[in-house]
Amino acid sequence: MADLFLPAEGAFAPFLETLSPSGNGRLVLSEPPARGIATVMARAGQGAALATRMKALYGIDVEDAARFVTAGDVALVGTGPGAWLMLREGAAPDWAAQPAGELDGLASVFDQSSGYAVLRLGGAGAATLLSRGAFIDMHPRAFPVGAAAVTVMSHIGAILWQREAAVYEVAIFRSYAASFWHWIAATAAANGLTPMRSA
Amino acid sequence: MRVKCPYCGDRDVHEFVYRGDAAPVRPAADAGEAAFADYVYLRDNPAGPIAEHWYHAQGCRNWLVVERDTRSHAIAAVRLAREAAR
């Protein structure tokens, strides 16, 4: 049987294509490079052992808090007590089987790579835009680099984090991409922001 | 109204699902119908502080125990239900 290869297609790609690659840079939208996404949920009473194992395996300092931490090609986004979204840059489609095995007995790991769409928002207007959707304080003092939140934006469940200064990423369920984009476009316009795509 | 989730921080009330009084404890299986009827149906209706179960559905997806004053809606404390149960 011939091997099938389906190239990863970003959920926001058709929308991003409608944007100009030039502009004032106050709101720059893009999709992060392809990455694996999985939920990691600690088994009862195994939180400390899990943190030790993940530090040894991935060199990452696990925080049981609503935080975004990264080490090398692995990142963790805290989504609840003892629960994280694990991101792995450039991961193969079947990548989640590896951490599931490596963390066996300490955590349950389930692949979500095809379930979430992630949009990256950069520029001085990104926090303003997000603050129009999430009912949380997006000022850098309250939501600094490394902060993460599970919340709802425009009735759409969203996981967001500030990756680096004025660079945010929002993960939503993939099938909501068109609805979320509609909200982005309308809210940007209402706040005088003209989104551009990164070249 | 805002609820300060122990994990997520200060959040709008629309992210939460309200369940009710956190005080009732499920009776033993052989406690009889009267005990179960009380457990299922009878609720105090205090004017003042009450501990209630709230679910942070649009956040960390954890059950919380919220101590709220029914006269003012002032919230005195919020704990994870899994920790409150200990």
From TrEMBL, chain A:
Pfam families assigned to the protein according to its UniProt record, in alphabetical order: SoxG
UniProt-listed InterPro entries: SoxG (IPR007375), TrmE/GcvT-like (IPR027266)
Domain of life of the organism encoding this protein: Bacteria
Annotated protein name in UniProt: Sarcosine oxidase subunit gamma
Lineage of the organism: Bacteria, Pseudomonadati, Pseudomonadota, Alphaproteobacteria, Sphingomonadales
UniProtKB/TrEMBL annotation, chain B:
Protein's GO biological process: tetrahydrofolate metabolic process
Taxonomic superkingdom: Bacteria
InterPro entries, sorted: SoxD, SoxD_sf
One annotated GO molecular function: sarcosine oxidase activity
Signal peptide: none
Gene3D superfamilies: Folate-binding superfamily (3.30.2270.10)
Protein name: Sarcosine oxidase subunit delta
Organism in which the protein naturally occurs: Sphingomonas oleivorans
